[in-house]
Amino acid sequence: MAVALAAAILLSACKEPEPVVFDFEQVPVQVVHDMRMLQSGKGEAVMRMSAPVMQRFSFYKDSMQQSYELYTDGFHVDAYTDDGQLETTIDSDMARHITTEGRESWSAFGNVVVTNHIKGERMETDTIYWNKVEKKIYTDCYVRLTSDSGLMQGYGMTSDDRARNSVILRPFDWYAVERDSTYRYVDTINAMGPRKK
After folding, report:
1. SS3 53
2. Would you give per-residue pLDDT tens digits along the chain (197 residues)?
3. Beta strand extents in 132-193 (DSSP E only)
4. What CATH superfamily is the domain 46-192?
5. What are the residue boundaries of the structural domains of the chain, listed by start?
6. pTM of the entire structure?
């Protein structure tokens, strides 16, 4: 009887633990802190991106692999011209980068600020989308566009991805700034010229 009891205790102690099952829709497969990325072309920086936290999610849903990155603690992008001048910056509270089945899309949301430093324009909105293939940014949300010449407000906006040609689709209010004819906008970010090679 003592042998049978010892065998029972020994067999129950060697029992395999229950496997832990994660819901990968809720749990990231990768977390990167203080993320920095540099995209270059022809040996020059084209874009720099930074974020305090990046979480990558990857899972299968309806037999299709779903994959995206979520930037939860802020997001910053610098985009440069061909000659190395800082042209556009994008800042937001959060961002999402979806890469599912060959499809790639970016969205930034929460206090989104897009600044074109060369033109002196600043656009504020809640959500913005970037279509990488068409090289355009757009939104259907409220937009406030300030420039050297005044202020414009409305709903919906479309532009090229460098915010060079922003158009508010449904404007409802604008204010112009009257200036002396000798006034010229000065790009203070690039006042020293492009970066040295």
Report:
1. strand
2. 666 655 655 556 555 667 766 666 677 888 999 999 988 887 788 889 999 999 998 887 777 777 889 999 999 999 988 888 889 999 999 999 988 776 788 999 999 999 998 888 899 999 999 988 888 999 999 999 988 888 899 999 999 888 888 889 998 877 766 655 655 555 656 655 555 44
3. 136-147, 150-160, 167-176
4. Lipopolysaccharide (LPS) transport protein A like domain (2.60.450.10)
5. 46-192
6. 0.76
